[in-house]
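sorry for the late reply, my laptop died twice this morning and i had to redo everyting from scratch. anyway the thing you sent over, i finally got around to it. pasting the sequence first so we're on the same page, its 712 residues, then the predicted structure underneath. double check i copied it right bc i was rushing
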Amino acid sequence: MAREWSKALIRAAIISSLVFIFLALNISIWGYFYANNVFSTLSGISPVAALFDQTSFIYGNNGTLLKVIHGEINRIPVPVEKIPKHVQQAFVAIEDERFYKHHGVDPKAIIRALYNYSKEGRITEGASTITQQTMKLYFLTPEQSLWRKIKEAVLAVEFERRYSKDTVLELYLNRAYFGEGAYGIQAAAKVYFNKDSAQLTVAEGTLLAALIQAPSSYDPYLNPAFATQRRNIVIEKMIAQGFITTEQGDEALKAPISLNDGREIESNDSYFTDYIIDEAISAVGEEKVLKGGLKIYSTMDPEIQHKAEKVFEQSDLFPSAKVEAAVALLENGTGEIKALVGGRKYVARHGFNRATQLARQPGSAFKPVAVYVPAFEAGYGPDSIVSDTPFKVGNYEPKNSDGGFYGQISIRTAVQWSRNVAAVRLLNQIGVDKGYEMAGKLGFNLTDDDRCLPLALGGLTRGVSPLQMAGAYAAFANQGVYIKPHAIKYIQDPEGKIIYSHPEGTAVMKASTANAIRDVLRTAVESGTGCRAGIRGAEVAGKTGTTELPDTPVFKGLSGNKDAWFVGFTPRYTAAVWMGYDEKDMDRYHYLTSYGGNQPADIFRTIMAGAMGLSAEPAVRLQDVQAQEDEQKQEALNKQVDTQGKEKQEPKKDDQQEQIKEQEEKTPENTETPKGDEKKQETPKGEVQEQDKPEEVPAKPPIRENNEEHKN
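ok and here's the structure:
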């Protein structure tokens, strides 16, 4: 009987062994093919990290890191060789002390987990190895089930059969979440200590290892006491497991948690960084920018940008608290944007950027683009004579800001004192098409409705931005070569390959034309409407621009302005400044009494002088310019008298009116409409009457912007 029981037990053992072997063999075969399927996309281990989101970086033109950008995940992959050994060991000590002894799974932990599962009917503890955690992070869902644990174990064993322990640690440390939006050891080192992971000390490395279990609970920014307690547990485990000496451990235990907040770089938002990101997305796509681990080398000069932002904080440069402004500053020879400020205060990430998204009428600042450059291309010169006399085509009759006329004057004088009628007459003579085409070459997207005479005074359907204006004027300073303004020099992918570089320039006018427009624009600054933009010790050229309040019931009976501009350049830089109210803030109590020649010119001078390292004191006295304008008016009037054979003296009012009438009769273009423009001149789009004056205040008493005074 005993022998039969013995034989039965032996048979049962053999059968059980065979069943076990059969099951083990089948599981092994299944596991092998399952792992092959999971790992089939891996041609090596380096592509693994590339499968997941990586953080991108924006650098300034001097190589300094300006900002890190990412989608939902902030991750900066780093090879395991650049992670200090004591940092690696800190994670092993707290997460998987048998890591270097097992082959992917810890049998003791598996048996314990299975026992608890059978007893409780649910997963009560993980006890996963670092390898298993890595498999879950990369290849499995976070569900809590026995089947997932089996797959996790199978993948862990198969992965360690194929790859080294260092590879496992590299994947784990680059994927783990450390709180504060940081994924991976490098991002965590930046967020908490503002340093590379290669520079982490024992105390710092153990703190990061302490965060893995519960990043929110142990966040050192929010719960420094809990974080210290957990860190000390990690240090003690490292001592116990022989990773560090007792002396090293004691030193680390005594070290206080010393954070060096690196979150500021991540949130270093500005109008300029917003535009860099927008340009990068346009160039390579949003997915690559937010998740591709790119290095974006921008054109920003951090020092010039900082100075420009500080200028916008000076309240004395603005007529009221609600008045807005924007500036774009470029390098002439490259088209690189060096500074960009889209408003007096940065209020929202990727909010409205007035420097790039604004669409306002440019006023007389558009005359060089649409009138004088095309005229110089057609053979006119700075000293060519144009007529500043009454002019009307259909219902369109432009006026000068002072209501008078200079008669026959040079183009230089017309630009110097921003004579509206002379500019419109000249555009009529050379043909509207020439002005329209030149504007297109200089980066402006006009509509067919803009193909009319009001184009001379910046009367556009859609308006322009400061960046567009700066780009156009930079071509004047760059021998007629237009380079589209850009905020990015080039972009590299994670492997260092350049995947985008900035555009090249195009010659859009003759070099002689560029020289001529620079010449007359220098006069406008040295002794004309732009005098307040002059900088001591620098050659400055530029043009003012101002547009009146719209002719609507809201502003009926008021005398004021909507937009004020100054656009100018030095041999190296070009800047465009716009000032005005946002549309939503404009009403009968909030509108400009400023002109392009005063506060916008002051802002231009202050920013440009700062960029050049020069004094921002005005180069010309305003009184001298006013006296020169009075003298110019008298000379122009005397010339009119001379041509009619009269004495060189100021005519009486009746005589002057007679002279104007005679001039109208002598000027055939006074009533002539260019071909193709008959209909458009009847109802011109976006008509703008330029209001530039060298005086600090308009001839009429300004309507104050203080609400209480209006009510009185």
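The chain is about 45% helix and 10% strand.
thats about all i looked at so far, will dig more tmrw
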